[in-house]
Amino acid sequence: MKKEAAVSILYSSIAIAAGILLFPIHTVFAAEEPSSITGYPQYDAILKQYKEGIEAGWDMQTFSDHNLCYLTAYDSDLNHIGYYVTDLDQNGTEELIIGKSNNKEYLGFFYDLYTLKDNNAVLIQTSGERNQFYLCNNNIIHQLWSGSAFLSGWAYYTLNDSSIELKEAVTYDSQYDETAPWFYSTVNISEDHSAPITEEECNSIKSQYELMDIPYTTLEEAFSETPSSPEAIPEHLKNTETKAAEIKQKLQEATSQSDMNQLSASLYQVWDDELNLIWSELKASLDSVSMNALTEEQLDWIAEKENAMESASSQYSDGSLASMVYYLTGASFTEERVYEIAKYLPQ
Q1: Which of 134, 211, 253, 331 could form a disulfide with 142 if both were Cys (CB 3.0 to 4.6 A apart)?
Q2: What are residue 325's phi and psi, to 5 degrees?
Q3: Closest Cα partner for 269 from 252, 247, 284, 251?
Q4: What's the confidence (pLDDT) of residue 225?
């Protein structure tokens, strides 16, 4: 992808406004490469985080801190976690399902369900120990939950874009009625006691939904088949990715243009610092011929980046967006350049 295309994507993000939406620019370029795992860079990034966590032996809290399902901490094998991409609601956007693979005891079970919205991966549902989600053969999402020994339920949903809508639910609530604890609802999974049913009727409803044997591709298979070298990424680049992600999150949450301008400048500075650090490492490791050629290329890139930053911000010269656009354009160019020159680092 040309840099101009990347910047046009950035303009689109800015144009849709105050709640600015950002995503790692280098993953946009990866979408055109054959090394993509799922075909969606946003989903690839999630799987890479899962792989990193499993290989590093993260505990439940660390998985949660990374917005991943904490139940994954019980699994320490890439063959036990898999992914499946499918269009559950037939709206033209494929969802990402992450779950337990090679385990028939957990038929249909999944850890996380994501979809794409405004070029971002959006988490729809995640499972917990007392709140588990399953996929049925008719693309119905099944929730099995428990509040206590006296309160539990089975709920069935359809997916509608980026949210789930309750189709029907059965609740067992012996605290509400010890002798007749079964209830049916289409509006609430736990607090609607207006339609009591028998246990037989409950079982009949549940029997209508057959859990799907999800054809997961294990993470072991995915990453062994996909050219990828996360080990080649220096630790300082990983730290920069984390810092950049934190700034982008703050940008999404910012409510004033002043804050957006400051955060945009910080994002640009983070990637510029990383670029300079990698450059210093290249000067120490590359031979003079290679370094001279790369330097000429770098000078051309700097001129192109600066022209793009000026051109982008000039479109908003009379408004408060100019500074933000200037720095975000620089950040996108610099982030891409970081990954372009990082490949020359010694392995």
Answers
A1: 134
A2: -65, -40
A3: 247
A4: 59
Asked if 162 and 142 count as a contact pair (C-beta separation under 8 A), the reply is no
Beta strand 95-100 with 81-86 is antiparallel
Q: Report the pLDDT value the prediction gives residue 215, as an integer from 0 to 100.
A: 94
Q: Can you say whether residue 222 is alpha, beta or left, with left for phi > 0 and alpha for psi between -120 and 50 degrees? A: alpha
Q: Are 95 and 88 in contact (CB under 8 A)?
A: yes
- Report, as ranges of residue numbers, the positions in the chain whose pLDDT lies below 70: 1-35, 225-232, 347
> How confident is the model at residue 267, as a pLDDT?
95
Q: Which of 196, 194, 192 is nearest to 179 (CA)?
A: 196
How far is 235 from 345, CA to CA, in rounded Å?
13
Q: How far apart are CA 100 and CA 213, in angstroms?
A: 11
pLDDT at position 6 is 39
CA angle 114, 236, 306 (to 5 degrees): 85
Other C-beta atoms lying within 10 Å of the C-beta of residue 29: 19
CA angle 155, 104, 137 (to 5 degrees): 45
The rounded distance, in Å, linking the Cα atoms of 83 and 215 is 8
DSSP strands (E only) in the chain = 81-86, 95-100, 109-110, 112-117, 120-126, 131-135, 141-148, 151-160, 163-173, 182-185, 217-218
Strand order in the sheet with 112-117: 120-126, 112-117, 95-100, 81-86, 217-218
pLDDT at residue 232, rounded to an integer: 59
Q: Measured in Å, how far apart are the chain's first and last C-alpha atoms?
A: 26
DSSP codes joined into one string, 15-37:
HT-SS-----HHHHHHTTSTT-S
Side chain identity at residue 289, one-letter code: V
- 261-65-262 Cα angle (round to 5): 5
Give kind and range of the element (H or E) at residue 219: helix 219-225
